[in-house]
Each structure stands twice: as structure tokens, then as C-alpha cells.
Amino acid sequence: MAARQAIALVAGVGPGTGAAIAKKFASLYSVVLLARSPNSYETTVKEINEAGGTAVGFSADVQDEASVKNVFEQVAKEFPDRPVAAAIYNVGGVFSRKPFLEQSVEGFKLGYETSVLGAFIFAQAALPHLLSAAKSPIPHPPSLFFTGATAAIKGSPYLQSFSPGKFALRSLTQSLAKEFGPGGVHVSHLIVDGVIDTPKTAEWLKGAPEGSKIDPAAIAETYWALHQQPRTTWTWELDVRPYVEKW
Amino acid sequence: MAARQAIALVAGVGPGTGAAIAKKFASLYSVVLLARSPNSYETTVKEINEAGGTAVGFSADVQDEASVKNVFEQVAKEFPDRPVAAAIYNVGGVFSRKPFLEQSVEGFKLGYETSVLGAFIFAQAALPHLLSAAKSPIPHPPSLFFTGATAAIKGSPYLQSFSPGKFALRSLTQSLAKEFGPGGVHVSHLIVDGVIDTPKTAEWLKGAPEGSKIDPAAIAETYWALHQQPRTTWTWELDVRPYVEKW
Amino acid sequence: MAARQAIALVAGVGPGTGAAIAKKFASLYSVVLLARSPNSYETTVKEINEAGGTAVGFSADVQDEASVKNVFEQVAKEFPDRPVAAAIYNVGGVFSRKPFLEQSVEGFKLGYETSVLGAFIFAQAALPHLLSAAKSPIPHPPSLFFTGATAAIKGSPYLQSFSPGKFALRSLTQSLAKEFGPGGVHVSHLIVDGVIDTPKTAEWLKGAPEGSKIDPAAIAETYWALHQQPRTTWTWELDVRPYVEKW
Amino acid sequence: MAARQAIALVAGVGPGTGAAIAKKFASLYSVVLLARSPNSYETTVKEINEAGGTAVGFSADVQDEASVKNVFEQVAKEFPDRPVAAAIYNVGGVFSRKPFLEQSVEGFKLGYETSVLGAFIFAQAALPHLLSAAKSPIPHPPSLFFTGATAAIKGSPYLQSFSPGKFALRSLTQSLAKEFGPGGVHVSHLIVDGVIDTPKTAEWLKGAPEGSKIDPAAIAETYWALHQQPRTTWTWELDVRPYVEKW
């Protein structure tokens, strides 16, 4: 297969992990970036194209089924006959950390919906393409990857609007891995345990030892390593954390 | 404290586990039964009252915040000055078992909302009363218990509309246990692994060895045992399954 | 069955949990107490007998197969024809908390052997009796219970001689629950998360809120509640911790 | 650093996973192979050397502290001043699958000792070298990796001599990750869920779909990917299984 004749989609592309994943997968694939606002993906799209890759961005609301389906239709038009080699859901949950009795029903639903409802919609739109790609001559098994959090395995006080959605996402990925593995789609769940080093967290962990934040590029490398696994040897779940993290 | 001078609320009262829990807790408390339809609780209310206990039923939709708050207000009117000694969320998730690609967004949300959104609303309505009861001279620490399922710890194919909600519920109960334990409220999560013996399952597991279904009365006894634990020695989570269950 | 016509064995009887379990089970059974030294069980044996119960103590080293088998033979002589209704392994692991590079091979083995080798030997001696009791008219299903620790589910620095043995014990109890459940033996694993209130820990947690230590009598009540579960509704695992415990 | 100026040690080198790991790590390092018998490593050593790499084999019994220490001393003599970049424990547990009541104390200990005692001894011999390497200019953080099994997280009937040792090994690796991560040593535990494709398993899974066995070379690639992770982004645990595996 010629270079970039297959597609990788990345949903949830801000200046951190999503951008790093898009750049990494752009080494082999044409990449499609999804974010709510063009601001989130424009810089990355530009950087990839300028570096000789192929990237295009779409505005979409992952919680809106029509919006996500629309992106997949546009992608099919823009890149006809190209298999989807990877679909990566990297949308962070939106939530507010607060005492349980101060949490609203809307706040609780919001945490859930941003974490897992969007993942459901994205997976449902992507899977027919990935199943189809499993029968195409692409270099690696088609992959459906999800970025999770420590909150996916541990409930904590004041995180009642965040953690249930991450637990639910983890369950969903396990269901999908079991249902679609035999069909040739590699489903993985990556647990991020620690602070990711992004512009937003630049001021966090001041005074901590050097290297105390997770490197987005290293997350991207880890996803890339999973993507390269042959179907005989697939990872469903792994964790990543900085060397100094307490856990 | 005189007999039945405190209240136990049970949400999700059909002819199985909910009814058994209500009857067990009626040995010490006035019990309040919540279900969507009076059909679900009328028989149990009658049985408890005829046996010398005190029971009252309310129709409520646990996914509707106003509906649940209204029940708590009515309970406060009907039983003024009685502490809430126990609030038990036993509402089963409504879901459809089907291939992921045939699942609708509405079907996915329904599974989540019946499992965990109702639990959120119920817990938020109950906790102020339970925290207050922790300072009252009631015989056992006030308890907030939730009935879960194996699907709370294991994702399975075709259960993508059920299992994520149960994972989420488990997370919620852990958050609550950690936040409200120090305030004196005992939060527990009971994982049911197997078929519960109810009228609905009467025809299931035909030919299996005697005793292959979980006894609702034994679930009630187990909840009762947890309720009696002093605050020095609280169980957050346990499992129950029949002796012949494979796991 | 007349009172105390069945036997409960408790291995690991010091002045804390083991004594409390023995006293609780003495309400229905003749109890046999095992400890390395008579000092550990003499007071409890005396208290049970003086209170109208039946108790006898044996010195045994649970890591020595011959020693444990010998106890079971003596018990069979002393109480012929009495079924064994419960066998409870409550032996704490002996270990030293230290940096990994300062740990000796002997120290590492010691932690393992006290936690899990003794459990293996005790279970193997007890199971033929419990399987036989499952066919006898005893009031509750015969029970094989093990006291575990948080270290059974979480590895920690400096606890490398303790935690692996507790993980191993947890695995063993799960194997046994799955193999012997269908034969009618109830196997449980109780995770103790926190400091147990015993003479040895009297000076610990000074300044902590009242009730910060786990009550041995409440552990005994919890084991008793599990023992009463019918075979339709068995708990394999639960945790207990004080209301103020961080986890 | 010039090519192969650092060392990777692999313990447990038969014709499957161990050989594949040794070959992969030989692309960057001089490799040292440990096995009980020269038969196990001779072919691999020859292949690596003939392919232009550097390999040497040592006979050692990982359960014998003196034997393992002796290897590390010989390595220090043979490769003076070369940092140890990786130490990989891939020794399979020796055990017999049988009913619990037919298991001997010796059989139970054997399973444990081959799984976890050897790991303890190997880790203790390797860690001073790895800690020292963390301060050397080697290309990737020094790594201490362990091959585990599904039996590390799930107890099963008849596997009572295997699974407890694997649970214990998992605990040990977590203790080590937490203690030595801050010192710059990357500790990982890889859960193998399925049959590994080796000469020994050639006749297994006849009739299963193509690709039903785990590829040793892919395990080696996965370890290599973990080894390349920077210290900001380390994986402690992951699983691998074939695409058709039920779990």
C-alpha cells in the first residue's frame, strides 16, 4: 500500500495528547482530526501538512450522533476507497470537582455524557469502517483506541461526576474488544495515571522533580506500539504514569 | 428507641429482592417502598402491615429528581421526626441485549440512566437525612446500600447498554463511601452474580441443580448483616452467588 | 441437632480476631482453637468453657503438615461423630517491613509461608471433613473462611515480604471456592483494611477519631453472617474498614 | 554510546518467548541468557552471534541465590563497565494441574517457588546494576520486566499450585515498581492470556482459527516498546491475548 493510503481518525484533539497522536499516526496514514472547535485542531493540521503529511480537520460534537456521522460521510467523500486503519477516542470528560451534595443532575450527566456517550457514538460510527478495513491489505490490524484515566478503576470523593463515566468507558471498551476482536478490530483502553504535560497544565506540579508529568508524545508512541501489534498478540489495557507518581 | 421509630426506604421494589429487603428491614423500621407503579409494591405493603409492621408505598420515577424529592417530602410529613436509618437502591437497569451495531443511542442512554442516574438522584435525596440520622440515637449506623451486578466488574459482548451503567454505579458507590463514611453513613455495593429467584425467572435454569438461583431473602439477610456492622467495621463491597455458579 | 454437636476450628487465635471468632462460633458449636503456643489460646478456651460453651485448644504449627493433621486426628478422637461446620484460617503473616534490597531470601519466604503455605495445609486437612459435613444435617453450610488484608489486592513499597503471600492467599481461596462450592463448602476471603483493635495495637493511632480501629467482635459477627448464608447466596469476598479509613 | 555497550539479561530462555526477547534486545544490547540447562540457550546464543550480535549464555538455577549472584559476577567480569539496561524475568512456573486434595505440599511450594521466589532472587541481583545504570548515559531507562499470566488475576479450580505464585509475582512487581520507579528503574508486568506459539504447543488448539496463539516475537516487540518508554510515561502492566481469545 502506498504511503498514506489509509486513514487514522483522532477525536479530541487539543494541543496535548490528541495532537501528539495525530502527528505520530501521520507518519503512515492520512489523519482526520475531530474537535468541537477548529481552534483545537487548526495548528496541528497545519503542522502535519507542512511537514509533508496529510491532515484535515472537522468540527464535530461527539455527543451528537448526526454530527459524528456527518464527519464520517465527509471523510468518505474526501478520501474515497481509503480504509480506516485507526480510530482513536481521546475526548476528555468535562466535569466539575465538588462535594456530592452540591453536584447537580445536569453536572452529573455532563460528566457521563462527555466520557462515555461520545465514545459510544464515535465507536458506532467507526466500527463498520474498521471491520471493513480488517479485510483490506493495510499494514496493521485496524485499531479502536480509547484514552481513559485512573478514575476508570478507582472512585474518589468529589469526583462523582467524572469517575462513573470513566468506569463506564472502560466497560464499553471491554465489551467492544470482546465483540469485535474476532472480527479483526483491535480495541484498547489506555489508563493515564498522572498529569499530562500540556499548555493547560504548564503551571501544575511546580517544584516537583523533572519529568513528573506524562509526555503526550510518549502516549502517542505507546498507542503506536499497540497499533503495530499483530492480531495474535493484542493488548486491551495498559497504564502509563510518571516514574515519580505515587499509586 | 421504640420499635419502628426510624425509617428504611427501599427503591426498586418488585416481587423479588426489593420486597425481601423491605420485609427484613420492617422487623425494626417503618418501611417506605418506592416503585414506578403501585402494582410493584402494593402486595408487599399489605403483607408487612398485616404482619404487624408499618409500610407505605410511593410511586416515583427514580430518574426524575422532582419525583424522588417529592417522595422524601411526603415521607417527612407522614413520619415527622423519624430518622432515616437506611436507604436502599435496588433498581435494576433496563436494557436490551443486542449486537453493538444494532444498539441505538437511546438504548445506550436508557441502560445508563436506569442504573446510575437514578442512583445519583436517590442518593442525593437520601444523604441529608442519613447524615442527620448519624447524629440520632438509632440502633445501627445509617446505611446507603446499592444492588449491583457482575456486569459492574466485567464487560461482555452484547451487554454494552447494561454493563457501563453498572460499572458507573460501582464507581459512584465508592465515591460516596469515601466521602460520607467519615460523616457516619455506611455505603455498600452488593454484587449479584447469578440469577435471582423471582417469579420472572421461574422458568430459567430448568434442569440445573436445586439451589442454582440466588434467594432474595438471603440477599435481604446479607444487607441486614451489613446494616448491623458498627462504624468501626464496615463493608463497602461483597459478592453473592449460588454454590454451583461458574465464575 | 443438639447444641454444640458440630465443631468449628479456628487457626490463629491470639487475643484479637481469632478469640472473637471462637467466642462467636461457640454460641452454636464446640470450638477447637489452634495456635503455636498455648499462651495464645488458654484464656479464650477458659472463657468459653466458663460461659457454658465447649472449647479446647491445640498447639500446632500451621506450616507443618504433620502438626496440623495430628490436630485433626485428635479432634476426631475427642469429638467422634461430630461434623466440622466451620474451619477458619486467621493466621497473620510474619514478615519484616524493609527496603527490598535489605530483604533476605529467608525473610521473603517466611512472609509467604506464614500467609499461604499454612493456609494450604490447613485447608487440605479441613476439606475432607467439610465435604463430609455438607452431607450432614448441620444448621448452615460448612464454611472455610480466610482472613486476608488490603495487601492482598495492592502491592506496596517495603511490603515485598508480606503482600505477595496475601495475594497468593487470595488466589488460593478463589481456587477453593470454585472447586469446592459445588460440593457444598462455602469458601470466603475477608479483606481487613485498617488496624484491628487488639492489645498489640493499643498504642497505635493515638489522636485518631474514636472508632478508628476495626473491632474484632465485628469481624466475628461478619464471619458469622457469612456462615449463615444459604448455599444459594454465598459471598466469596468482602472488605471491612473503619468509617474514617482513607482508601 | 556505541552499539552493544550495554547489557540485557534474560532469565528463562527456552525456544519461545525468552529466545524472542533475547533476539529483539540484541539489536541494541549485548545479551546474557540464563537457563537451567545450556540446551535451552545454546541455539539462541549461536543465532544471535552469527547474526552479528553479541550473546552469551549461563546455566543458573533462579531459585538458588548463589547461582544467580554468580552469573551477575561473571557478567561483570566478561563485560566490565557495561551498564545493565534491561533484566527480564521470563521463567515459567513449574506446576501440576490437579484436584486440590491430591496436591502435595511439595507440589504447592514448587509452583510458588518457580514463579515468585526466583523472581525475588533475580530482581535482588539485578536491581543494584539497574539503579546504577539509571545514572549512566544509556539510550532508554533501565528496565526490569516480568512475564506473568492470566492466573495472576484469576484463581481457578485445579490451578492452586500455579495461580497463587502468579498472584504473588504480580504483587512483587507492583512493590518494586513503586519502590524503584523514583530511582529510575522501569518495572513492568506483562499478563499473557492465551497459548504462546512455541514448539511445545505446536499440537495445541488444532482446528482453531489461524492466529489463535500468541506470537513470541510480538511479545518481544511489546517488551521492546515498553523499554523505549521515557520515565515520564511508564507502563506497569498490560495484557496480551489473541484476537479470538474468550475472556
In short:
Chain A has 247 residues and is of the alpha/beta class.
Describe this structure in words.
4 copies of one chain form a homotetramer. By secondary structure, chain A is an alpha/beta fold. Chain A has one domain: Rossmann fold. Chain A has 6 helices and 7 strands; from the N terminus they run βαβαβαβαβαβαβ. In chain A, strands 3-2-1-4-5-6-7 form a 7-stranded parallel sheet, with helices on both faces. In chain A, α2 links the parallel β2 and β3. In chain A, α1 packs across α6. The mean pLDDT of chain A is 95. Chains in contact: A-B, A-D, B-C, C-D. At the B-C interface, α6 and β7 of B face α6 and β7 of C.
Features:
homotetramer, 247 residues, alpha/beta, Rossmann fold, 7 strands, 39% helix, 16% strand, NAD(P)-binding protein (chains A, B, C, D), NAD(P)-bd_dom_sf (chains A, B, C, D)
Number of domains of chain A: 1
* Percentage of residues in strands of chain A: 15-25%
- Biggest protein-protein contact in the assembly: A-B, 43 and 43 residues
Chain oligomer state: homotetramer
Share of helix among residues of chain A?
Answer: 25-40%
Per the CATH scheme, the topology name of chain A is Rossmann fold
Just give the CATH class of chain A.
Alpha Beta
Biggest sheet details of chain A:
7 strands, parallel
Specify the number of helices of chain A.
Answer: 6
Task: Give the overall pLDDT of chain A as a whole number.
Answer: 95
The CATH architecture of chain A comes to 3-Layer(aba) Sandwich
What's the count of strands of chain A? 7
* Termini separation of chain A: 44 Å
Kindly report the name of the CATH homologous superfamily of chain A.
NAD(P)-binding Rossmann-like Domain
Q: Which stretches of chain A are poorly predicted, pLDDT < 50 over at least 5 residues? A: none
Choose one word for the global shape of chain A: globular
Task: Output the radius of gyration of chain A.
Answer: 17 Å
Describe the strand arrangement of the main beta sheet of chain A, using strand numbers: 3-2-1-4-5-6-7
Organism (chains A, B, C, D): Orbilia blumenaviensis
InterPro entries (chains A, B, C, D): NAD(P)-bd_dom_sf, SDR_fam
Pfam family, one (chains A, B, C, D): adh_short
Protein name (chains A, B, C, D): NAD(P)-binding protein
